[in-house]
């Protein structure tokens, strides 16, 4: 009886585990819009600083600064401010969603 009760209580919690493990850190991001903005406002600078056609090494290098979803958002805000880009916070969120899908794979 005790085992059945314990299983009955834990079963609903087990349903939450897959959703939590695969949680999207940028759930409202429009990835297509983020990709367009990234192409327009980021690639030129990244290619100039890190080489290559698209400057992707900034995201893939061993010593990259960004290691969490929060750090990615902070870096995007810093770039927006330093380069005086015309981006709103929601635009940065869209770019973060695109970059996460393409390079970072944060959960």
From TrEMBL:
This is Cytochrome c domain-containing protein. It comes from the Bacteria. Coiled coil: none annotated. The keyword Signal applies. It comes from Pseudothauera lacus. Keywords: Signal. One of its GO terms (molecular function) is electron transfer activity. Residues 1-23 form the signal peptide.
């Amino acid at each position: 009886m005790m085992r059945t009760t314990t299983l009955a209580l834990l079963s609903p919690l087990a349903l939450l585990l897959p959703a939590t493990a695969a949680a999207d850190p940028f759930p409202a991001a429009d990835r297509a819009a983020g990709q367009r903005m990234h192409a327009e406002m980021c690639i030129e600078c990244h290619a100039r600083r890190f080489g290559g056609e698209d400057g992707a090494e900034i995201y893939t290098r061993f010593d990259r600064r960004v290691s969490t979803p929060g750090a990615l958002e902070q870096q995007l805000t810093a770039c927006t401010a330093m380069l005086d880009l015309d981006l709103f916070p929601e635009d940065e969120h869209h770019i973060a969603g695109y970059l996460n899908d393409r390079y970072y794979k944060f959960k």
